[in-house]
Amino acid sequence: MADNGVIAVAGEALVDVVPAPAEGYFEFAPGGSPANVAVGLARLGVPARMLARLGRDFLGRRLRAHLEGNGVDLSHVVDAPEQSSLALVEVGPDGVADYDFRISGTADWQWTPDELTGALDGIVALHSGSLALTVEPGAAVLRELMVKAAGSATVSYDPNCRPRLMGDPAEVLRGVHEMLAVADVVKVSDEDLRWLLPGVPPGEVLDDWAGRGPALVAVTLGGDGVLAATAEGIRTSMPGRAVDVVDTVGAGDSFSAALLAALHARDLLGPARREALRGIPALRLDEVLEECVTAAALTCSRRGARPPTADELRAALH
Question: What is the CATH number of the domain that holds 224?
């Protein structure tokens, strides 16, 4: 592996405004799907590098402290003059989170190519997705980074759709298909698919996407677990883990982090391991998916985007 197998994560690090335990009050919590994945990787013991633009305001400083405190490498983070982005989170009676955003002109989306010079040095994989790959002007820069990374690293992608901001689902789907031709590892939720491809069964989408280039595609089904397919024709599923759901904030990101961490632990990341990843045996894939489902369940069992540590995940699996 390259340089201890560093995994870079590119995209937004924003602040979630979430309901507090005391009724009528709100709390500010670190968030942003890519940032959550980076934290999840670091908490699972994987060297994680964040590629983000962090504001100099109070919220940006809080985000920086959160990432540093969890052991994420910030050597390639941009010190941005713009304000930090906000996500307003509403949690329903079933614990499912809905998001609204305040992101006009904020730090996360103003990427220039020069700001990413050297960002891919020494990495074994690059993960991105969500708003980072759809909000301009930065989206075009990060999408080009994904294309560039494909030559020297495993590329991981999560569409993580946000309908209130992403516009026309048909247009977003075209961009998703472009990323599928670049990505090795793809994770998507059934909620995403209901927006992108209403009425199409998840299994049908899985078959289609697995034939568009990725080595591995996983469709998460909330409490019902996950469906997965490989480029070599394996089709499998893993049931969800029973858990008292507090909220679902960050659950999908914990799944993505656990997926990359599990592949990392099995030496299946990096361009030299691409064929091995495409041919991952069914039993080994099931082991990987069990870790992912368990990590997501642990996150659902507590408030906010709090991914498990390696010790917590290990204890839950045994």
Answer: 3.40.1190.20
Beta bridge partners of 155: 126
pLDDT digits (tens, 9 = 90+) for 62-100: 999 999 999 999 999 999 999 999 988 887 777 677 788
The 10 Å CB-count burial string (b at 16+, else e) for 119-139 is bbeebbbbbbbbbbbbbeebb
Hunting for tokens 């659902």 — which residue is that?
Answer: 300
Task: Return left, alpha or beta for 24; rule: phi > 0 is left, psi -120 to 50 is alpha, else beta.
Answer: left
- The mean predicted confidence, pLDDT, of the chain is 94
* 40 belongs to a structural domain: yes
Residue ranges making up the domain that contains 183: 33-50+72-78+121-317
Q: Decide if 45 is inside a domain.
A: yes
The whole-model pTM stands at 0.94
- Per-residue model confidence as pLDDT tens digits over 255-294: 999 999 999 999 999 999 999 999 999 999 999 999 999 9
176 part of a folded domain: yes
Query: Which two structure tokens, joined as six digits, stand for 258?
Result: 């656990």
Indicate the number of domains in the chain: 1
Residue 240 covered by a domain: yes
What pLDDT is stored for residue 4 in this prediction?
66
